[in-house]
Design brief:
single chain; 483 residues; alpha+beta; four-stranded mixed beta sheet; 13% strand; elongated; binds zinc ion
Length: 483
């Protein structure tokens, strides 16, 4: 049995529109019910009519319910309940309802409750109704971890640092491994792996306690702490008003209305000024004839959020098959098409490693200053690697974390060792052109998300040995003035 829910908004543009509007919605429902054979219906929302009144619209809804074996539920606990309220005109009416198939209505849920939430700026109050439906047989989709993002702007950074320090101080240092001079030693690999894993675990548990997570793309980009404060004032004023019996006049009520209006206007203003700032940015790019900057801003604003993953790729349909297409493609990219070439490179590297140049340079200890310099190069607001560690974990981590990183990186260097996490990357296929044909594999470019700490380790290597390293002359990407 399927449950079909329909959101109703019959608005205030005249009651006649209601008669015109409800019919197409009903038509859609009938088509669907033929398709699915058995369907339970749930309509909810603004019907723009009060149950039990004598006008024609009320009769129409009543007839609709009767003809389709649907119950018109009460909202609120009777008396002078209302869902629509115009505080300026002192107009209150009960016009939001649920209409439901009789099968869903039980003795204990005959009424929908009206929610008076302090942060609801709409002129309608929300209504809530509990129904008992059997669990869907297919596994419910919970939000994948990757869709959740740490919200560092709302995190308590000082608390994060202090909790992290306390977790880090609980780690037993693998002193043998840290004091080992390294050279060809493989005995300490497990200790180094475990030390590194403990540092990562400390970073995760510290954020769990101090930094909230949000759904990716959830926040309005123009939201400010001032709006948060106004929202809280609005909630407080509503709570006070509720505690005083929800008066429709008097100081407590006018205070609530005033604050709510201020909150509503502040939201509008913030959205407007964000639009204006965006227009100014576009205008500036145009004046400078900076088309790259112009389209970058444009796409960031209008394109990035609406992009859905393709459900068809190179003629293959379905999430699993599409993923397999990408996997095969990127695997092929990383497989050398000539095994002899790979072997000859391997021999060349081994030959150079075994070359006795006569001078043995001491392996440098990675000091705090070096790590601090490299941490300052990490860019915030970037996606995490597979281990879930973001730049912010490190940037906000404080000195204790940096000392641990000095120790662990120095030991890695002396042991010629990197932890397993450094060898894992997550390839994200990105559409080269957002308006191109998303079902063609050659329209995608893969970008690899690698561990942030591996990036930091690479920065450290560059800091120490950058002068001795050079890129192949055929490498154009990521090279200054070439890419
Ligand atoms: Zn060792």
């Amino acid at each position: 049995m399927s449950l079909l829910t329909v959101s109703i908004c019959l608005g205030a543009t005249g009651r006649l529109t209601m008669l015109l509007n409800i019919k197409p919605q009903l038509a859609v429902c009938i088509v669907l019910s033929i398709d699915m054979w058995v369907v339970l219906f749930l309509f909810g929302g603004d019907f723009n009519v009060s149950k039990g009144c004598s006008n024609i619209c009320c009769k129409f809804v009543g007839n609709f319910c009767e003809a389709n074996n649907i119950a018109w539920l009460d909202s609120g606990d009777g008396g002078d309940s209302y869902t629509y309220h115009s505080d300026v005109n002192c107009h209150y009416s009960l016009i939001d309802y649920f209409l439901s198939s009789h099968e869903l209505v039980m003795e204990e849920n005959r009424t929908a409750s009206i929610l008076v939430d302090g942060d609801n700026t709409s002129d309608h109050l929300a209504i809530m109704w509990h129904i008992n439906v059997a669990r869907p047989t297919t596994k419910a989709r919970s939000l994948p971890e990757s869709r959740l993002k740490l919200d560092w702007n709302r995190g308590d950074i000082a608390a994060y640092r202090s909790v992290l320090s306390s977790h880090l101080s609980d780690i037993t240092l693998p002193t043998d491994a840290l004091n080992c001079s390294g050279s060809c030693c493989v005995d300490h690999f497990p200790q180094l792996e475990s030390y590194y894993t403990s540092v990562i675990a400390s970073l995760h548990s510290a954020t769990k306690l101090t930094v909230p997570t949000v759904k990716a793309g959830f926040h309005k980009h123009w939201w400010t702490p001032e709006l948060d404060e106004l929202k809280q004032q609005c909630i407080d004023a509503t709570e006070l008003w509720k505690a005083n019996g929800k008066p429709r006049s008097g100081e407590i009520n006018s205070n609530r209305v005033r604050i709510k209006l201020r909150y509503k206007n502040a939201i509008k203003e913030a959205a407007c000024s964000s639009d204006k700032a965006f227009n100014d940015t576009l205008y500036e790019h145009l004046c400078k004839k900076d088309t790259v900057g112009f389209w970058k801003s444009w796409r960031k604003r209008f394109c990035s959020n609406n992009l859905k993953p393709t459900s068809i790729l190179n003629g293959k349909v379905g999430e699993h098959n599409v993923r397999k297409q990408f996997t095969d493609h990127f695997q092929a990219v990383f497989t050398p098409n000539n095994s002899t070439a790979e072997n000859s490179y391997k021999e060349e590297v081994n030959r150079m490693l075994n070359l006795d140049t006569g001078e043995k340079l001491p392996v440098p200890f990675i000091n705090l200053e070096c790590v601090e310099t490299c941490v300052s190069r990490l860019k915030c607001n970037k996606a995490a690697g597979c281990d879930g560690i973001m730049s912010e974990h490190i940037v906000y981590g404080g000195k204790d974390l940096l000392v641990h990183l000095c120790l662990v990186f120095s030991a890695f260097l002396r042991h010629c060792f990197v932890p397993a996490d450094f060898c894992v990357g997550l390839i994200i296929p990105l559409l080269k052109n957002r308006h191109g044909d998303a079902s063609q594999l050659n329209m995608y470019r893969g970008i690899t998300l690698s561990s942030t700490l591996s990036k930091l380790f690479e920065y450290v290597m560059l800091e120490l040995f950058g002068n001795s390293l050079q890129s192949d002359s055929l490498q154009y990407g990521f090279n200054k003035k070439l890419s």
